[in-house]
Amino acid sequence: MSHPPSLAVRVGRVEAALRRALQPLLDEHGLTLEHWRILAVVADAPGLGMGEVATAAAVPAATLTRHADRLVERGLLVRRVDPADRRRAVVALSPLGQAYAGRLLAAERTAAVPDYSVATIPLRSSLTS
């Protein structure tokens, strides 16, 4: 009886395919897939605090600060003090960052990634019947 690959293997395969598709665009600014996750989160929800971005992008908070610094240096991200709470920094994409995120999103949507939708994964109970 053959089982589908583990979730970890499937996620790894999707990430590898996505990296192959996006790396040429990421290389334009010397960025990684982690940077893209951060940009994608901020594109979807501008004005989030750094902790919220770290959680949503699945990036450790200490790593996020370093990545955000790089994105700010490249003119893709804007970091400001939250006017409602001056102890907190919020982030948004710059106009350049918005255009770049649009290009990455378009490339992501056309990337050839393995299809692991729920419909293609047999339920464990169906394997034993």
Automatic annotation (TrEMBL):
Give residue ranges for domain HTH marR-type. Answer: 4-129
Q: Which domain of life is it from?
A: Bacteria
Matches recorded under Pfam families: MarR_2
Keyword vocabulary terms for this entry: DNA-binding, Transcription, Transcription regulation
Q: Which SMART domains does the entry mention?
A: HTH_MARR
SUPFAM superfamilies recorded for this chain?
A: Winged helix' DNA-binding domain (SSF46785)
Which InterPro entries does this entry report, sorted A to Z? HTH_MarR-typ, MarR/SlyA-like, Tscrpt_reg_MarR-type_CS, WH-like_DNA-bd_sf, WH_DNA-bd_sf
Listed name of the protein: HTH marR-type domain-containing protein
